[in-house]
Amino acid sequence: MNDFNKDTKNKKITRKPNIKTGIAERVNVYHKIVGVKNHKEFIKKHGDLTHGLGKCLEIFFNTKFQGGSKKKELRIYEIKNKKKLGQPFRCDWYAKVKDKHVVFEFNGNHHYQSSFKILTDWRKHEVLSNPSRNDLNREYVIFKIPYYMQLTKDYAKYLFGDLAKEKLGRSFYNDKKFKKAIKKIYNTDNEDLIFAPGLHTSKQTPATYNEDGIERFLQEMEDTKKYPSIKHQVVYSLKLYINDVTLFNRKPWKNNKEWKNLIIPKNKKFLDFFDFEPDKKYLNCFFEREEKNYK
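User: That's the sequence. What structure does it adopt?
Assistant: Structure tokens below.
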């Protein structure tokens, strides 16, 4: 794997360990690659899929979505015996698309780590999808986006094409919208510079997932299998991360505690999924830990 991620056409890249952890520092910083002054400005003006989802939805659906902050989010109460129960469910992004009430949820890391959060997700789905159980008496169509995902062309085709057709009866994807969206949220129209799906520097790695979270992750990979690039990109990002965690840390950090298990769990189903070498033909996007000169 160490040879797999080197770009031999460029000068040798010197790796440096973090002074506290010994973990190799990332090679590239995204905002610099796409010509934005600093990370804060990138998040404010563009935001990738994590912070730019609202802009992205507006482009593909050609309609304004409600959300983006706690004050603006649609709130829906569960109803029982004609009474509202407890606190309302908040919807990250909502709009009426044709005759459908559409909700997009951004699933952050706690949706993979907290059993109670995963239970709440199930309850929320049950309430929103059943008009008799919510105070607005509506049936909502729910889309969920994992926190490790980014808007590659294949994921855009899956989300706004295949999944939209399944849930809403038609595709909202076309290449023109895709180009407009990546320019808006990544500040580039070069598909090779789209921030790769996966986890690059986050400490909220699959090693932190509980059993239900691992099942959720593996199901998401299964759901997108029509587009193998997504799996290859996610796994490659984690393999790069493991490389950097172990580059200067050769021995277990405590007894038999392996450094790689800061990144991936010991769960057999996950390891079976993870046990392959990503194909280079699918890796045409930006990886912060890849030993490559993107400029």
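The two ends are 23 Å apart (CA to CA).
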